Amino acid sequence: MKGFNTRSIHGGEEEKVKDAVTMPIFQTSNFLADDAKYASERSETFYTRVGNPTIGVLERKLASLFAGTGGVFFSSGMGAITTIFHSFLKHGDNIVVSKNVYGGTQNLLRELPDEGVEVRRFDQSDYGSITGLLDGRTKIVYVESMVNPNLILTDIEAVKAKISSSDALLVVDNTFLSPYNFRPLEFGADIDVQSLTKYINGHSDVVAGFAGFKDPEVESKVRRKMVQFGTNGAPFDAFLVNRGVKTLGPRMEIHNRNALAVANYLKDKPEVLRVSYPGLGHVPACYENCPGFGGVVYFEMRDRETAKRFMRSCSIFQEATSLAGVESLVTVPSLTSHASLKESELAEVGISPGGVRLSAGIEDIQDLIEDIKWAIKECVR
């Protein structure tokens, strides 16, 4: 199977269970055991923290969509990131990270020095600075392909080129683009980690995460740590994600179109100080063939109070902290995803207190534009 949509539907499900068209839920913690299962590190019919048939189908499907050799299903995106970090970082090591990453990841990074791990930062406007941060104890270089929330694109090929002489793993959070729009493993990443809560499940009814791998040995190391930490996902969540991902391609096409239309509408509004959306301008070469850039649009208003009035004047865009579901959402990042950052830290990563993050769903674009038009009118009265 070659096509993305075909693999989204049929991938991992080649062997049918009891002739069921759809993979059923194996909602069980235990399976009958034998000597072969005792010896296996990844049996899908031994104990669900180790593996489960429903989870295994999803892992194989997503590994294919991520362009990986394998993958691991987690209880959340942060569970995936935490497990990956602790699989490779130990006392005396260091991790090199771009300055602007998700607030939850920032919180995790703040705790690493207490474990004896040094966190070294680089600015995405200067990839050349990465080289000077690397040494023999650098185990991970961590970036987001599209930064939350201001949508700066990281040149994955440029980062890989700077670390090619190092043994460090390149870990990319690709949540904001999804594997439909971009696959970091095809451009030099070693691990592609994503929150399945967002586009891949797409229906705002699951919290889960996934990591796709280029190297089976790297996957095995992370899988062992997942089993040790108990950050495995649940069979019912795997069933829901397996259902949701089957429509990922068609949904992403609408997300891509709607967000681009919203960004083009906002950029001409005098009440809007700045709009950020990759589809409006030049992109690094590794993104030139992307079919789109997802449903998130970031823009800035004059201050936080104006941003809050805009948010609370919307009717179709609902005030909520997450994103990338079929329904349109709106939030002020300085109140949610980046609430832990001081104003000086917000400025350092390019986020304004008046910044607004829209997640354009798959509703009719005319309705979304009318909603935004009304909210702008209301918030500047």
Automatic annotation (TrEMBL):
Positions of post-translational N6-(pyridoxal phosphate)lysine modification: K198
PROSITE patterns: CYS_MET_METAB_PP
Transmembrane regions listed in the UniProt entry: none
Any one GO BP annotation for this protein: transsulfuration
Entry cofactors: pyridoxal 5'-phosphate
Record Gene3D superfamilies: Aspartate Aminotransferase, domain 1, Type I PLP-dependent aspartate aminotransferase-like (Major domain)
Record's GO cellular component terms: cytoplasm
Keywords of the record: Pyridoxal phosphate
Family: Belongs to the trans-sulfuration enzymes family.
Protein name: Cys/Met metabolism pyridoxal-phosphate-dependent protein
Organism: Mesotoga infera
Lineage of source species: Bacteria, Thermotogati, Thermotogota, Thermotogae, Kosmotogales
